[in-house]
């Protein structure tokens, strides 16, 4: 049995599909509308910048999970992500080669990011103001 009270009121029924409270509040006449909207997206919802961002996010997520940031691994992840998103590439009328160029150009900073912010132990950043006598 599940008890939901005013103090304990968070229930994730289907963790693969999370619907915002705003989406629920905008559909009082039909409770299924937010779920259907999340599942069925129109081609107008997909823009090149959104797709590049999603692809780059997935590449970075894979690099973080595998703790690998070398150029060869990032390139392999990029190719895998592009294969997964072929349907979206068709929707925005972009070729595979163009997608590779875009994601590769946008992923140039991943290695620098990993060197600067990712380590086994926390890095200490000390910014002391300079004192002039």
List key phrases describing it.
133 residues; mainly alpha; 7 helices
- Got a strand count? 0
Elements, N to C (H/E):
HHHHHHH
Helix content range: 40-55%
What's the tally of helices? 7
* Estimated share of beta-strand residues: under 5%
Q: Looking at the structure, what is the overall shape?
A: extended
Outline the structure in words.
With 133 residues, the chain is an all-alpha fold. It folds into 2 domains: 15-41, no CATH class; 46-117, no CATH class. The protein contains 7 helices and no strands. It is extended. The protein starts with 20 loop residues before the first helix and ends in a 16-residue tail after the last helix. The mean pLDDT is 79.
Give me a quick take on this structure.
With 133 residues, this protein is mostly helical.
Helix-strand blueprint:
Elements: H1 21-25, H2 33-39, H3 48-66, H4 71-84, H5 86-91, H6 96-106, H7 110-117
Helix pairs in contact: 3-4, 4-6
């Amino acid at each position: 049995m599940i008890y939901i009270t005013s103090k304990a009121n968070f229930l994730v029924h289907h963790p693969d599909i999370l619907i915002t409270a705003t989406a629920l509040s905008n559909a009082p006449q039909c409770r299924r509308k937010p779920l259907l909207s999340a599942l069925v997206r129109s081609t107008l919802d997909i823009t090149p910048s959104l797709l590049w961002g999603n692809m780059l996010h997935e590449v970075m997520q894979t690099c973080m999970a595998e703790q690998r940031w070398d150029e060869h691994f990032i390139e392999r992840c990029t190719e895998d992500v592009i294969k997964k998103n072929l349907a979206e590439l068709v929707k925005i009328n972009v070729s595979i080669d163009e997608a590779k160029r875009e994601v590769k150009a946008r992923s140039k900073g991943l290695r620098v990011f990993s060197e600067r912010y990712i380590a086994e132990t926390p890095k200490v950043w000390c910014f002391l103001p300079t004192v002039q006598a």
